[in-house]
């Protein structure tokens, strides 16, 4: 299906603009994924992005995942709630002091608990630690409807907006083919 999609590019340059969220409850932690694992990253990508048309990497082979993740510029961090993976972010250090938050998000059962702002806070802090004078990301109108508001609430500013026409599935792919899990718009979540 062809859809018109708006893409927003946002950045945080001035550390004084950063508005972090206070620390999470004691049963929440963010830890770096220190052992490269294509299986883990693909799991998080599909589990987090399945409701939001994250399809760009679905066709990647195991080797493509490995090649991406083995790059020293790339880091993966996982949000854990009571020992359960609840979300993640992926960073890529780039030229000229930029760090991109390539992917960030929560598994569906953890959305709406205030964890998104805290995860973005953790991602932004880590991006700064690894040399990000400029921290940036992009999202689109196919992503979670609260994404842009969360980014702006943390101090990110829009630097580019574009509209494109893309071929996308009629429905988001879900966490795996045939999962048939109710989507957020079906179960009131």
Give your account of this protein's structure.
The chain is an alpha+beta fold and 189 residues long. It has a single domain (2-170), classed as 3-Layer(aba) Sandwich (Aminopeptidase), CATH 3.40.630.30. 24% of the residues lie in helices and 32% in strands. It has five helices and seven strands. It has helices spanning 38-49, 62-69, 115-129, 147-153, 184-187; strands spanning 2-12, 28-32, 74-81, 84-93, 98-106, 134-140, 157-167. A seven-stranded mixed sheet has the order 2-3-4-5-6-1-7, sandwiched between helices. Helix 1 packs across helix 2 (62-69). The longest helix is centred in the middle third of the chain and has 15 residues, at 115-129. The protein is globular, with a radius of gyration of 16 Å. The mean pLDDT is 93.
